[in-house]
Here is the input.
Amino acid sequence: MTRFAVLKPSVPQDSAPAPVADYGLPDVLEPYLESLQILDRLHRLMLDLIKDEFERLRLADLTPVQALLLYNLGAAEVSAGELRSRGMYQGSNVSYNLKKLAQMGYVHHQRCDMDRRSVRIRLTPQGEEIRDTVGRMFARHADGLQASGVLDDPPIRLVNLQWRRVERFWADQIRYIY
Here is the structure.
């Protein structure tokens, strides 16, 4: 993900605060940018949590990104292109990670019968074990968050609804460019 600009420039103690550009949206822009920064940090923290879990289990051959890719593949059989278009993978090096995962025995890949240029990918039993490990970790985290009340105010379902709306807005912006 991309780093975002600092929301408020630092102001020397002896000078008046510089006006923050609000682009006509003073009540919306700052919280929107803060949300983007939080999302970026959450994604990085999630990868750190996966890394720590795998270190604890002495599973050192996978990167957190590769483990998340295996988790997101689930029981599906997809092409490399579908991984990105379905939002299962957020990196630019899909081919590299799939090649490494195949070499390590976590995914099985096979040329598609209809289009020989396309490769279909699915988890091997070893990949399914990793998927289940990440799933159990996420379940533990969800249980802890629920027990602490963090997901209650506002309810996580409403937060997710809001993010799906933002996602749809962004997707529409991309579509209308072309």
Observations:
- Residues 42-172 form a domain with the Arc Repressor Mutant, subunit A fold (CATH 1.10.10.10).
- The two ends are 23 Å apart (CA to CA).
- The beta strands are 78-79, 107-111, 119-123.
- The mean pLDDT is 83.
